[in-house]
């Protein structure tokens, strides 16, 4: 899953818990779920419109498949960009914490 291991996932969840608090996490998760559902519905609507238009103009299934493949790759790219920013920020926080705790670990 996006190259994230179990320990990293736990750390990210810990940081999210610290940032938002236990009261806000269900609300944040619900909001993200709704946003993902809306994105999925919007892409399905776009695909259906493209298919209808292609069928009306007599395009064959091969060219239609190529178009939907391009759309899917763009959707995946946008999703990765959105989630990638979150992972980058989490990695920055992780590095900052390691920098802070590094001297403490070495002195023990």
Account of the 3D structure:
This protein has 108 residues and is mainly α. The chain has one domain (22-107). It is built from 2 helices and no strands. The protein has helices at residues 6-57, 61-107. Helix 1 packs antiparallel against helix 2 (61-107). The radius of gyration is 21 Å and the shape is elongated. 0% of the residues are buried. The model has no long low-confidence stretch (mean pLDDT 77).
Distance between the termini: 35 Å
Series of secondary-structure elements, N-terminal to C-terminal = HH
Unreliable stretches? none
Count helical runs. 2
**Taking all residues together, what is the mean pLDDT?**
77
3D shape: elongated
